[in-house]
């Protein structure tokens, strides 16, 4: 593990690691202000390094979960599996996943209605109303 630091990271990983370090620094500042404690530069760097390494582990685990399911795409179920040891995190991810699914369904419905209206087609509710109108006029 110690030798791993000798190899330079690819540019995109350097930028990602810098972004993690910056974000950890911001979070530590918030905690400092809120809890009246101080973080040394070394402790911020250590927290950043641990966070970055843990994210690498998470990414590899997610990849393996998808591969095990014979998929090439990581999906929500993989993320839930990763979060299974933290009840609060699993609950949060499940809730957000359901919200996204619901939002996506609403967007699809809106697109269907727009494309149907643009083509002059009727929605199922409009079709039903038209059939009822036809039946009423046939009875008269």
Automatic annotation (TrEMBL):
<keyword id="KW-0131">Cell cycle</keyword>
<dbReference type="GO" id="GO:0003677">
    <property type="term" value="F:DNA binding"/>
</dbReference>
<keyword id="KW-0132">Cell division</keyword>
<protein>
    <recommendedName>
        <fullName>Centromere protein S</fullName>
    </recommendedName>
</protein>
<dbReference type="GO" id="GO:0046982">
    <property type="term" value="F:protein heterodimerization activity"/>
</dbReference>
<dbReference type="GO" id="GO:0000776">
    <property type="term" value="C:kinetochore"/>
</dbReference>
<dbReference type="Pfam" id="PF15630">
    <property type="entry name" value="CENP-S"/>
</dbReference>
<comment type="similarity">
    <text>Belongs to the TAF9 family. CENP-S/MHF1 subfamily.</text>
</comment>
<feature type="region of interest" description="Disordered">
    <location>
        <begin position="100"/>
        <end position="140"/>
    </location>
</feature>
<keyword id="KW-0238">DNA-binding</keyword>
<keyword id="KW-0995">Kinetochore</keyword>
<dbReference type="InterPro" id="IPR029003">
    <property type="entry name" value="CENP-S/Mhf1"/>
</dbReference>
<keyword id="KW-0158">Chromosome</keyword>
<keyword id="KW-0227">DNA damage</keyword>
<dbReference type="InterPro" id="IPR009072">
    <property type="entry name" value="Histone-fold"/>
</dbReference>
<keyword id="KW-0234">DNA repair</keyword>
<dbReference type="GO" id="GO:0031297">
    <property type="term" value="P:replication fork processing"/>
</dbReference>
<keyword id="KW-0137">Centromere</keyword>
<keyword id="KW-0498">Mitosis</keyword>
<dbReference type="GO" id="GO:0051301">
    <property type="term" value="P:cell division"/>
</dbReference>
<dbReference type="GO" id="GO:0006281">
    <property type="term" value="P:DNA repair"/>
</dbReference>
<dbReference type="GO" id="GO:0071821">
    <property type="term" value="C:FANCM-MHF complex"/>
</dbReference>
<keyword id="KW-0539">Nucleus</keyword>
<dbReference type="GO" id="GO:0000712">
    <property type="term" value="P:resolution of meiotic recombination intermediates"/>
</dbReference>
<dbReference type="GO" id="GO:0003682">
    <property type="term" value="F:chromatin binding"/>
</dbReference>
